[in-house]
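Input C-alpha cells:
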C-alpha cells in the first residue's frame, strides 16, 4: 500500500508535476500551470462537478470532470484536445439555450462568466432551441437582490456561499428535472424569506441570476457634496451598535443608500402630505412630530344671498358642525412613527434610537406628519433596501421592539377604543408576551376556516380582510395602523371567519389566544366592547353578502345594492328625458365648491333615470388604502367618509378609480382654529394654506343642492331612494332592507 504522504507524478498536457495522493486532476493541472475552465465552484468552495465544463481526458472510456476525479500515479491527462474542446462548446451551448444573452450582469459589467467563457471557447451561435416550457422569470421581492431565474445555470455556488461561508442556510434547490430552480427557505419569495441580504450569493453567482439592485439602476440618496449630507463608510456603520451583525459585503454593495444628515434646532426634516421614499433613524438629539392640518371638516356655506346664490367651501370644527355619521372623537391620530399623536394636541417627541418613516420608505406612502428638530440632530437617512435588511437584523429589531414595548405599546393599545380601559399592570403583563411579526406584500396572515390562535393589532401597513362567497372574493375591509382582527374567530368557535392578507409591508402585534382570553376575563368592559364590535362586523359582513348575492338574482337590484345606494339618505337623480346635457348642474357644483366640481354626470341608470355619481361606496374601496393617518374609513352602513384630521396628501383621490374624491386648498386666514395649528414660517414651507380631501355630499349643508337649484329643465332632483326606486323598479326596498337587517 502506498504512503499517501509521499508525492506522485502526474503528467498534464506534457508537463510532469509531483502532487500529493488524493489531489484532484483539476488541482494537479493548476499546480502545473495549466488552466481548466469551470463554472460550478470557486477556489474557496469544494468542487462538486455540476457544470462538467472542466472535463478532461484521463485515458478512460469517457471524459471525466477534473474537479472531482482524483489523480493517480503516472496518470497522463489531456485538457486541450479537439474532442475536449468540442465537448466544452456543446456544454456551453446547452447552458446558453436556457440563458438570456446578454444577461443582466453581462449588460451591466460584461463579466458574466458563462458568456465570457463561451465566447473564449469560440461559441458564436447556439444550435439548441431556447426553453419553451413555462418557468419562473424573476423575483423582485428583495429590496437588495434581483433574482433572474432564467439566468441561473444551477451551479449551486450561491447555495454553498449562503450555507458554507455565511451559515445562513436560506438557499437550496427546488423542483425536479427540467423544472429545477433555486429556492429560498420553504419556496418563499426571496424578500419574504429569512435572507439577510449579506450579498454572498451575489458574489458567488457566475451569471446575472443574482444581482445587486443598486447596480441595476439604484443610486445614491443625494449627489456628492450636498450640504449637511455626509457619506458613511462601511467601517463607520458597522461601528454603530444598530448595525451590529449586518453584512459588510451588503453595505459595500449599497454604498450611498444610507447617509448621515445633520439638522439645526427648528429645522424641518419632513412635511406631512409630501411624497417620500426614505426612513430616518435618530443617532443624536430630539425632534418634534406633529400634524399641521386642522381637525376640521369641509363645509359648504352661502357666501352671499340673492337671485344667483354663491356658495363657498369652508373649514369648520366638529363643535360647530357635528356629523351624525361619525364615531366618537378618537383619543389619538395614528402616524408613521413609534408614537401616536393625541387628537386634541397632535404633537409628540422623538428621541435618540427612534425610527420614523417606515411606511413611507417601504410602501412609498405620503408622509403622515411633520417632523422638526427640537435640538440639533444627527440622523441616518436610508433607502428601503437598507431598511429591509435592518428590519431583519437581530440587534436592530431587538432595539426597535424594546422601544415599542417600553414606550408605544400602552399608547397603541389604549388608542384602540376597545382597549381604552386596560389597566397599566395588564399592559405591563402584555409587554413580555406580545410579539411583533412582519409580513411582506401579498403574504397570508391568516386564512378563512383555519384554527384561530391569536389576535392581531396592526402597527404598520394595511391588511385586506376578505371572505370567499360563491367562488368570489368579497373584500370586507382594509385595516390601517390601529386596526385589529382575529377577535371573531377567537369568540366564535375558534375558527377564522375571514382571510387576512398583507396589502403592503405590514407589521402586526400578535397576542396569543390564552392572553386574549385572560384579558377578556379580567376586563368585562373590554369583553363587552369586543363582542359588540364583533356583532357589528357580522352585520356589516351580512350586508355585503346580501349585496353580493344580488349579483346572480336581479341585475338592476344588484347594481342598486352594489353601489351602496340603499343606505343613502338622499340621492341626486337626473331625468334623462328632460335633461338636455347643458351641464348647468356641473357648473353650479363648481361654483359652489370654489371652482372644483364634485359632480359627474354619469352613474347607474334605471329606466330613464341616472343616479349621478357622488361616492359609489365601492365594495372594494381602494381609496382607503395608504391613507397615512387613517382619516378615510367606512361607516357601519358601508358608506365611505373622510374624517376631520385629513392632512390633504391626496392619495385617496389618486386611488379612487372614478374620480369622485378631490383635494381642495383653503385659505386658513380668518379661521381661528386653523391659524392656531398652521405654521407659517419659511422653514416649514407653509403659507397659511390648508389642503383637505372631500367627495360629493349632495350639499348636505344646504336645503337644496346647487346642481338641483341651477337645473333649468327640472331634470335634477334630490330624492329619498327607498321611496323613489320602489316606484321605478317595482321593488319594496324597505322589505329588502329589513331582510338584510334580519340576516345580519
Amino acid at each position: 500500500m502506498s504512503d499517501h504522504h509521499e508525492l506522485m507524478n502526474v503528467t498534464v498536457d506534457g508537463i510532469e508535476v509531483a502532487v500529493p495522493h488524493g489531489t484532484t486532476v483539476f488541482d494537479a493541472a493548476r499546480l502545473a500551470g495549466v488552466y481548466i475552465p469551470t463554472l460550478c465552484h470557486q477556489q474557496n468552495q469544494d468542487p462538486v462537478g455540476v457544470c462538467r465544463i472542466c472535463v478532461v481526458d484521463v485515458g478512460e472510456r469517457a471524459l471525466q470532470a477534473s474537479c472531482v476525479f482524483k489523480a493517480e500515479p503516472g496518470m497522463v491527462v489531456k485538457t486541450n484536445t479537439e474532442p475536449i474542446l468540442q465537448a466544452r462548446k456543446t456544454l456551453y451551448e446547452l447552458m446558453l439555450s436556457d440563458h438570456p444573452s446578454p444577461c443582466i450582469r453581462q449588460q451591466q459589467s460584461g463579466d458574466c462568466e458563462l458568456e465570457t467563457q463561451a465566447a473564449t471557447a469560440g461559441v458564436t451561435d447556439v444550435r439548441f432551441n431556447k426553453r419553451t416550457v413555462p418557468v419562473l422569470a424573476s423575483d423582485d421581492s428583495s429590496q437588495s437582490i434581483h433574482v433572474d431565474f432564467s439566468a441561473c445555470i444551477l451551479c449551486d455556488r450561491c447555495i454553498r456561499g449562503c450555507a458554507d461561508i455565511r451559515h445562513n442556510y436560506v438557499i437550496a434547490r427546488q423542483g425536479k428535472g427540467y423544472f429545477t430552480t433555486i429556492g429560498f427557505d420553504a419556496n418563499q419569495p426571496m424578500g419574504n424569506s429569512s435572507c439577510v441580504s449579506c450579498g454572498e450569493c451575489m458574489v458567488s453567482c457566475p451569471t446575472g441570476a443574482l444581482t445587486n439592485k443598486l447596480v441595476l439602476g439604484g443610486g445614491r440618496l443625494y449627489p456628492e457634496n450636498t450640504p449637511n449630507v455626509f457619506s458613511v463608510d462601511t467601517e463607520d456603520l458597522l461601528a454603530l451598535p444598530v448595525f451590529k451583525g449586518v453584512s459588510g459585503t451588503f453595505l459595500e454593495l449599497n454604498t450611498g443608500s444610507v447617509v448621515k444628515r445633520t439638522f439645526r434646532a427648528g429645522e424641518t426634516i419632513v412635511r406631512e402630505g409630501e411624497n417620500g421614499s426614505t426612513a430616518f433613524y435618530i443617532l443624536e438629539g430630539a425632534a418634534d412630530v406633529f400634524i399641521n392640518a386642522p381637525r376640521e371638516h369641509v363645509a359648504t356655506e352661502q357666501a352671499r344671498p340673492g337671485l344667483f346664490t354663491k356658495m363657498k367651501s369652508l373649514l369648520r370644527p366638529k363643535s360647530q358642525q357635528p356629523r351624525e355619521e361619525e364615531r366618537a372623537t378618537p383619543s389619538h391620530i395614528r402616524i408613521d412613527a413609534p408614537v401616536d399623536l393625541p387628537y386634541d394636541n397632535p404633537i409628540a417627541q422623538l428621541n435618540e434610537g427612534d425610527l420614523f418613516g417606515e411606511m413611507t420608505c417601504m410602501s412609498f406612502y405620503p408622509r403622515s406628519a411633520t417632523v422638526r428638530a427640537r435640538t440639533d440632530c444627527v440622523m441616518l437617512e436610508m433607502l428601503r433596501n437598507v431598511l429591509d435588511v435592518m428590519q431583519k437584523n437581530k440587534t436592530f429589531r431587538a432595539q426597535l421592539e424594546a422601544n415599542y414595548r417600553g414606550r408605544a405599546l400602552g399608547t397603541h393599545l389604549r388608542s384602540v377604543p376597545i382597549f381604552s380601559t386596560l389597566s397599566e399592570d395588564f399592559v405591563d403583563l402584555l409587554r413580555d408576551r406580545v410579539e411583533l411579526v412582519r409580513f411582506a406584500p401579498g403574504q397570508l396572515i391568516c386564512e378563512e376556516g383555519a384554527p384561530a390562535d391569536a389576535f392581531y393589532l396592526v402597527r404598520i401597513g394595511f391588511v385586506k380582510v376578505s371572505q370567499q362567497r360563491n367562488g368570489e372574493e368579497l373584500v370586507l375591509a382594509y385595516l390601517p395602523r390601529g386596526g385589529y382582527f382575529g377577535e371573531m374567530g377567537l369568540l366564535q368557535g375558534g375558527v377564522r371567519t375571514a382571510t387576512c392578507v398583507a396589502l403592503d409591508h405590514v407589521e402586526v402585534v400578535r397576542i396569543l389566544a390564552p392572553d386574549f382570553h385572560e384579558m377578556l376575563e379580567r376586563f368585562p368592559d373590554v369583553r363587552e366592547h369586543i363582542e359588540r364590535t364583533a356583532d357589528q362586523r357580522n352585520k356589516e359582513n351580512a350586508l355585503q353578502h346580501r349585496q353580493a348575492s344580488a349579483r346572480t338574482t336581479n341585475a338592476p337590484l344588484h347594481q342598486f345594492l352594489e353601489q351602496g345606494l340603499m343606505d343613502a339618505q338622499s340621492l341626486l337623480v337626473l331625468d334623462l328625458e328632460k335633461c338636455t346635457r347643458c351641464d348647468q348642474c356641473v357648473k353650479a357644483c363648481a361654483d359652489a365648491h370654489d371652482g372644483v366640481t364634485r359632480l359627474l354626470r354619469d352613474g347607474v341608470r334605471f329606466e330613464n333615470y341616472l343616479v349621478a355619481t357622488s361616492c359609489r361606496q365601492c365594495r372594494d374601496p381602494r381609496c382607503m388604502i395608504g391613507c397615512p393617518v387613517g382619516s378615510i374609513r367606512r361607516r357601519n352602513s358601508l358608506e365611505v367618509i373622510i374624517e376631520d384630521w385629513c392632512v390633504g396628501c391626496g392619495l385617496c383621490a389618486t386611488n379612487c378609480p372614478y374620480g369622485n374624491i378631490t383635494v381642495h386648498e383653503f385659505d386658513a386666514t380668518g379661521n381661528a382654529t386653523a391659524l392656531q395649528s398652521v405654521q407659517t414660517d419659511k422653514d416649514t414651507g407653509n403659507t397659511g394654506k390648508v389642503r383637505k380631501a372631500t367627495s360629493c355630499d349632495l350639499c348636505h349643508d344646504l336645503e337644496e343642492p346647487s346642481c338641483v337649484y341651477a337645473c333649468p329643465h327640472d331634470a335634477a332632483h334630490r330624492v329619498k331612494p327607498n321611496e323613489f326606486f320602489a316606484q321605478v323598479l317595482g321593488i319594496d326596498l324597505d322589505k329588502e332592507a329589513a331582510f338584510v337587517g334580519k340576516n345580519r
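The longest strand covers residues 297-304. The first helix runs from residue 25 to 31.
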